[in-house]
């Protein structure tokens, strides 16, 4: 801090004091005060004001010069507040406390970014290992002349690519979604058509109930979420031959919300794993028994539901069923189903 900068900053206060001092002198002259007393009245306040300003300048200069020098010498600027002594004036203490809070906030934000980057890197590593499986399967099929099944493996690879894209976008889906009335039957039909070959090859039947309703959401993101639920169900169907794999999707209208139930009759989820299935990278007992499980599908699906303002719940009984419920809030306006958002495949329930 230079003396010129200090005086420029203190100029308004100095002018106010000078004006008050001038009024005092005029007042004393009006009462014909002796010249000696008048001189004392002029000089004595100056004897106190000048040293006070010099002392104020000295302590501020000492603090701000150290602040500037420390900032220039630090590689990590957010640690600046930790290098400063406690100032002996109020503005300096406020500044130091503000710098400390700003540095703490920045450090927390940087740590969160590092965690997100690490999580994304881990997911990419898992995804790379997962996509190797359909690639290897396609090589074997083509080598053995079974190119007819290559379409299923291509769909799996397409799903892997789409999953990593949705995961990458899940941090800021608001840049890529449009909320509006969406037909549940239309969206589920699109998701089922995408997985049609795999559903048929695994002998999975689908039954739908009460999907002739619209909810407020983004059709593309909802279709991806339903596709994830469908893929999970197909991974964990029971190997028992006497029980036909089946998925039942139904919607229920409640006064304050619409509930979409996605239920399969697969192997179910152990009770000890159920509270953790929406956590990142959690595979549980079922996932450890099957290669290729990343534990990311339900985590990203619930994260997207939260971003869209929807709820997601799970219920399961080991060896019998798993049910995932999507909870959609009600809007003041309920859009009628039109030809545009009507289902493409009216025979979907017969699949």
Attribute tags:
351 residues; alpha+beta; Heat Shock Protein 90; 2 domains; 5-stranded mixed sheet; two-stranded antiparallel ribbon; 7 strands; 55% helix; disordered C terminus
Structure summary:
With 351 residues, this protein is α+β, with helices and mostly antiparallel strands.
Distance between the termini: 79 Å
Instruction: Return Rg in Å.
Output: 35 Å
CATH C-level class of the largest domain is Alpha Beta
Number of helices in the DSSP assignment: 9
Q: Which assembly state applies to the chains in this document?
A: single chain
CATH homologous superfamily label of the largest domain? Histidine kinase-like ATPase, C-terminal domain
Name the poorly predicted regions: 332-351
In round numbers, the mean pLDDT is 76
- Backbone shape: elongated
CATH topology tier name of the largest domain: Heat Shock Protein 90
Q: What topology does this entry show?
A:
Layout: H1 3-30, H2 35-73, H3 90-143, H4 150-169, E1 180-183, H5 184-194, H6 196-201, E2 205-209, E3 214-217, H7 219-235, E4 246-253, E5 257-264, H8 284-288, H9 297-308, E6 311-317, E7 321-329
Parallel strand pairs: 2-4
Antiparallel strand pairs: 1-3, 4-5, 5-7, 6-7
What does this structure look like?
The structure is a single chain. With 351 residues, this protein is of the alpha+beta class. The chain folds into 2 domains: 3-107, no CATH class; 181-350, Heat Shock Protein 90, CATH 3.30.565.10. Helices cover 55% and strands 13% of the residues. The protein is built from 9 helices and 7 strands. It has helices at residues 3-30, 35-73, 90-143, 150-169, 184-194, 196-201, 219-235, 284-288, 297-308; strands at residues 180-183, 205-209, 214-217, 246-253, 257-264, 311-317, 321-329. A 5-stranded mixed β-sheet has the order 2-4-5-7-6, with helices on one face. It has a two-stranded antiparallel ribbon with strand order 1-3. The radius of gyration is 35 Å and the shape is elongated. The relative contact order is 0.08.
């Amino acid at each position: 801090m230079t003396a010129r900068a200090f005086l420029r900053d203190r100029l308004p206060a100095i002018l106010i004091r000078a004006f008050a001092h001038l009024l005092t002198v005029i007042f004393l002259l009006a009462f014909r005060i002796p010249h000696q007393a008048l001189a004392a009245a002029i000089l004595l306040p100056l004897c106190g004001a000048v040293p006070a300003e010099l002392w104020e300048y000295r302590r501020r200069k000492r603090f701000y010069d150290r602040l500037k020098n420390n900032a220039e010498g630090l590689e990590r600027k957010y640690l600046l507040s930790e290098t400063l002594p406690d100032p002996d004036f109020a503005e300096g203490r406020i500044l130091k406390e503000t710098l400390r809070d700003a540095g703490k906030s920045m450090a927390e934000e940087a740590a969160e970014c590092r965690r997100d980057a690490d999580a994304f890197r881990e997911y990419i590593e898992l995804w790379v290992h997962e996509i190797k499986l359909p690639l290897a399967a396609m090589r074997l099929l083509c080598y053995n002349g079974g190119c007819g099944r290559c379409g299923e493996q291509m769909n799996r690879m397409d799903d892997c690519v789409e999953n990593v894209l949705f995961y990458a976008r899940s941090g800021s889906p608001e840049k890529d979604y449009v909320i509006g009335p969406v037909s549940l039957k239309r969206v589920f039909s699109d998701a089922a058509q995408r997985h049609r070959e795999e559903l048929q090859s695994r002998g999975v039947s689908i039954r739908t109930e009460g999907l002739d309703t619209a909810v407020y959401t983004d059709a593309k993101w909802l279709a991806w979420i339903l596709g994830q639920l469908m893929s999970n169900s197909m991974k964990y169907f029971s190997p028992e031959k006497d029980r036909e794999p089946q998925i039942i999707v139904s919607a229920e209208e409640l006064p304050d919300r619409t509930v979409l139930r996605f239920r399969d009759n697969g192997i179910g989820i152990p009770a000890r794993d159920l509270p953790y299935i929406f956590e990142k990278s959690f595979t549980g007992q079922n996932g450890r028994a099957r290669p290729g499980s990343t534990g990311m599908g339900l985590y990203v699906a619930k994260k997207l539901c939260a971003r869209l303002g929807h709820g997601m719940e799970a219920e399961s009984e080991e060896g019998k069923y798993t049910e995932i419920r999507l909870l959609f809030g009600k809007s003041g306006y309920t859009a009628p189903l039109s030809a545009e958002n009507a289902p493409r495949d009216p025979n979907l329930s017969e699949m």
